[in-house]
Amino acid sequence: GLRRELMPKHVAVIMDGNRRWAWSRGLMPQAGYLAGAGALKVVVDLCRKWGIHVLTVFAFSSDNWLRPKVEVDFLMGLLESVLKDEVASMSRKGIRLSVIGDVSKLPQSLREFITQCENTTKNNSRFNLVIAINYSGKYDIVQACQSIARKVKDGVVEPEEINEFMINNELGTNLMPFPYPDLLIRTSGEVRVSNFFLWQLAYTELYFTDTLWPDFGEDELLRALHVFQRRVRRYGV
Ligand SMILES: CC(C)CCOP(=O)(O)OP(=O)(O)O
Ligand SMILES: [Mg+2]
User: Fold this and answer.
1) Ligand nearest to the backbone CA of 212
2) pLDDT score for 236
3) What is the largest CA-CA distance in the chain?
4) For ligand 2, a single-atom ion, which residues have Cβ within 5 Å?
5) Quick one: average pLDDT of 92-106?
6) Residue 75 CA: which ligand 1 atom is closest?
């Protein structure tokens, strides 16, 4: 069985396969996104139940802007309504919500609600839910480099002083406990990282399942956690 002391501290999820799930049921893509939002709520509570500290979910990548406008608009509205519907229960459950990604490109109303949710929950410390919205792993590293380059230009930092800790501190994940995911789960059979976390995945155990995200529930999560606990993590040693 699962051992609590071997639980991952930080699980990251690429929630993929929502439209295929809808299509296989003769439904619209929007129904798949809605079902995906439901799966997310279930998985958040399961992670809390199993003593995982941080759950990061890839909810919208910078590539997703290329989707049909009707789908992008629906996803933006869905993200806002999920935050609206869940902020009270997140506060009650001690869940801190953080959003990573370039929020400047999001609709004004969603951006305002993200700020509100982050402020309302910023003192919660029992569980961290991180939602990556308009996130790009490459851009995260680019903006970190830009920030450090400004410090070098201002004479605050010498080039020789730049090290991985300095870079860690400039990435979108700098404020969370356990910034490096121990386990990355990707659903729907795709086996790629798709410009999600790049730097942060240096030692992450990668787990792929054919299950479509809306069907990813307790059985699937437990299966992923058993596989994780069976893998001896060597960190290259
Ligand atoms: C926006 C993102 C979380 C949606 C992931 O599911 P998806 O739309 O990529 O679904 P498909 O891979 O089945 O097209
Ligand atoms: Mg997909």
Assistant:
1) 1
2) 75
3) 60
4) 16
5) 97
6) 1
Cα 228 from Cα 157, distance rounded (Å) = 39
Q: How far is CA 54 from the centre of its chain?
A: 9
> 16, 73, 182, 215: which one is catalytic?
16
Structure pTM?
A: 0.96
The interface pTM score, or ipTM, of the predicted complex is: 0.95
- Judged by DSSP in three states, 141 sits in helix
Active site residue 16: yes
19 lines ligand 1 (CB under 6 A): yes
pLDDT band at 176 (very low <50, low <70, confident <90, very high): confident
In angstroms, the CA 29 to CA 71 distance is: 8
Ligand 1 pocket test, pick from 23, 43, 188, 212 with the greatest ligand atom count within 8 Å of Cβ, gives: 188
Tokens of 102: 């370039």
Atom of ligand 1 nearest to the CA of 21: 13
Indicate whether residue 101 lines ligand 1 (CB < 6 A): no
Q: What is the mean pLDDT of residues 127-152?
A: 98
Measured in angstroms, how far is the CA atom of residue 218 from the centroid of ligand 1?
20
Among residues 166, 83, 148, the alpha carbon closest in space to that of 119 is found at: 83
Distance (Å, whole) CA 228 – CA 225: 5
The pLDDT tens digits for 1-22 are 899 999 999 999 999 999 999 9
Q: Give which of 214, 210, 221 is closest to 187, Cα–Cα.
A: 210
Q: Residues 102-130: pLDDT tens digits?
A: 999 999 999 999 999 999 999 999 999 99
